[in-house]
Write a structure and sequence with these properties.
Structural class: alpha+beta
Largest sheet: 6 strands, mixed, barrel
Strand content: 15-25%
Oligomer: single chain
């Protein structure tokens, strides 16, 4: 029997028992729809997490800090950051986080940008109200960070502009109407780090001399409030700041930072300004590990969220697997419906099968016929289930966004149907249908034509 003949006979047989076969096909469609809806939900959540990490700038960011060796541990081996140092790390000299170090890291292959994480204490005065807070800094490249999606006002006009962004909670302490501060001028009071010139003594400075290599001088700077933000960029991993300055301006202020005091405590002379930490932005997220290793080889401490993202991917692989298993339960139930339908078809068509065998049809021809019927139901059920699963996911995503919008939250795309899922759903449906047709096809092929012709 030719394949075309088997397909034609299968189509005719399916049309003869239209209601029963339609119900069986619908059962397959429901099973495929549940599978598609579950897996598309998992894929959508994974893409949402990836988008959030990408927009937050954490996917391609390396945080660089000065290594601080601890006391020698067991066996005389030094320990750093709670772990034992490797022999290579122990032999690498510790590097200060100064401007020379920043420029050196800027030339590492794969690095797109290196900027200091400047943080210092300051007082911001708006009218008659003044509040002491922690000042922070961010570069222009942080404009695409998801923390600024709900920014009221505008971003910095230039890297060195005398402008400031305020967190809403802090702005509320300066004004009963925080957004009214946008466009207004505030005054920043801070301590400037002023290096002692060669040949001069600390006693020659009138105020704030610490007696080492620099003097602390009180300064004021007028700033324009350009925006109010609702959250801290980078998910707060760089610390919490209530006010953000452009990185260029923050560098130019030469504000005294905690890193300077730590340097003095550690035995330094304080003549060279150091940063609390450096932030390295890598051009390609896939090169993060390679760049991080090069930074450590240069004597700096470094860490990234690479390990965390690997764990996140592993979590979503497991989640997709569980969702796929739960979605396949309905398809397994539908497979029993296929077995029942084809077994009933064998009983009803015993005489027809006997005639086919009597005129020369082989056992393989009979099996091929029933396999064709099972595959046809699987193909139709898979296509219908794919469409039904897409509709379920669409309404699930729409309903979720309506709920978020009603509660003043930004909408999100939590559902996605990847291309591989489209092909997988249809192929999997056909394979399950063929597997369900094994027993009925084998039973039909084993029928004795003489006994089958006696059946009425």
């Amino acid at each position: 029997m030719k394949i075309a003949d088997a397909v034609e006979l299968a189509g005719r047989n399916l049309r003869e028992s239209a209601l029963r076969n339609t119900l069986t096909t619908t059962g397959i469609a429901v099973g495929v729809a549940s599978l598609v809806a579950m897996v598309s939900l998992g894929a959508g959540l994974q893409q949402l997490a990836n988008r959030r990490l990408t927009r937050s700038g954490l996917f391609n960011t390396i945080f660089v800090f000065r290594q601080q060796p601890r006391e020698r541990g067991f066996g005389g081996r030094r320990e750093t950051a709670g772990r034992s140092e490797s022999p290579a790390e122990a032999q690498t000299p510790r590097r200060p986080l100064d401007e020379d170090g920043r420029l050196e890291l800027q030339h590492v292959a794969g690095v797109a940008e290196v900027y200091p994480d400047i943080r210092f204490q300051g007082e911001i005065r708006a009218g008659s109200k003044a509040e002491i807070t922690t000042m922070g800094s961010i570069p222009p490249s942080a404009r695409d960070n998801d923390a600024f999606e709900t920014l009221k006002g505008s971003f910095f006009s230039s890297p060195g502009a005398a402008e400031v962004l305020l967190r809403r909670e802090f702005a509320e302490s300066l004004s009963d109407h925080p957004e009214s501060l946008i466009g207004q001028e505030v005054t920043l009071r801070y301590a400037e780090r002023e290096a002692i010139k060669p040949g001069q003594s600390a006693e020659e400075y009138d105020a704030g001399t610490v007696g080492f290599g620099f003097s602390v001088v009180p300064r004021e700077r007028a700033l324009k409030v350009v925006g109010i933000m609702d959250q801290e960029p980078f998910g707060g991993l760089r610390g919490n700041s209530d006010a953000l300055l452009p990185t260029g301006l923050a560098i130019a202020l030469h504000a005294a930072q905690p890193a300077g005091l730590r340097e003095l405590v550690g035995g330094g002379n304080g003549q060279h300004e150091q940063y609390a930490s450096l932030v390295v932005r890598v051009a390609n997220p896939s090169a993060v590990q390679q760049v991080e290793d090069q930074i450590k080889q240069k004597g700096f401490g470094a860490f990234s969220l690479l390990d965390a993202t690997k764990s996140l991917r592993r979590f979503f692989v497991i989640l997709d697997g569980f969702l796929g298993i739960f979605g396949s339960i309905a398809l397994a139930v539908a497979a029993l419906g296929i077995v029942n339908t084809l077994v009933m078809s064998v009983l009803e068509r015993r005489r027809e099968i006997g005639i086919m065998k009597a005129i020369g049809a082989s056992d393989a021809d009979v099996r091929r016929l029933f396999f064709a019927e099972a595959a046809a139901m699987g193909l139709a059920g898979g296509a219908l289930g794919l469409a039904l699963g897409w509709v379920i996911g669409f309404f699930l995503n729409t309903g979720t966004n309506i709920y978020l919008r009603n509660h003043q939250y930004p909408t999100e795309q939590i559902w996605s149907v990847p291309w591989w899922l489209i092909g997988f759903a249809i192929v999997f449906s056909v394979l399950v249908s063929l597997a369900s047709g094994l027993y009925p096809a084998g039973r039909a092929a084993r029928l004795d034509p003489v006994q089958a012709l006696r059946y009425d």
